[in-house]
Amino acid sequence: MVFAHGFGCDQNMWRFVAPAFENNYRTVLFDHVGAGGSDHSAYDPEKYASLDGYADDVVELCRALDVKGGVFVGHSVSAMIGVLASKKASELFDTLVMVCPSPRYIDDGDYEGGFSEAQVHELLDFLDSNHMGWSQAMAPVIMGNPDHPELGEELTNSFCRTDPDIAKRFARATFLSDNRADLAGVTARCLVIQCSEDVIAPLSVGEYVHSNLRDSELVLIDATGHCPNLSAPEATIAAIKAFL
């Protein structure tokens, strides 16, 4: 099982989930280049201008570790990175677990991504001008769970630790991406985990992902916010175990 973290995070975000699978799977955790304990000198702005660069890393990592027929668990943007990686090398994963995925964050015609184009650009402009302020304002909103402020604080600190220039570029690769067409060619079994309240990836997005995958199951868990791996790990683990 390969666990991939979302924007502004690192592998530590899986600490409540990954151990539940260690008895039955070889578990792999890593930091995307530019995040956590990764080698920041390996960051190439051109390569990582799109999610394909991150997907190429996943393929390279998994081939180096001789992963075949594995389970990829991707949170948020990493769900789509997993989709791209599985299409580049279909032998790697038999199963994709997508935790709060979104193939496109911007509304487009009948498609409801959750944000207008103006809202996304406003969000990116805010990040460009004030990385720390953006982190302190956005992290608690993304996390939800105001009755557990320590979770919002952890995400805030994670965002603040991210290199500002890398964060700006990764945010653009994330929030301006459109991977809707990539869903059609996925051959792996897919589990889509959707939170009942998520300001980043609303229910309409989870339903869209589910309906556009050939072999998928949508599970709605009773959780608020965009990070159930931290705020609702038991429900996340139960959904994954039931599917596997």
UniProtKB/TrEMBL annotation:
Lineage top rank: taxon: Bacteria
Keywords: Hydrolase
Annotated Pfam families: Abhydrolase_6 (PF12697)
InterPro entries the UniProt entry points to: AB_hydrolase_1, AB_hydrolase_fold
Domain AB hydrolase-1 residues, every copy: 1-239
Record flagged with keyword Zinc-finger: no
An annotated Gene Ontology molecular function: hydrolase activity
Gene3D superfamilies per UniProt: alpha/beta hydrolase
Record-stated family: Belongs to the AB hydrolase superfamily.
Protein name (database record): Alpha/beta hydrolase
Taxonomic path: Bacteria, Pseudomonadati, Pseudomonadota, Alphaproteobacteria, Hyphomicrobiales
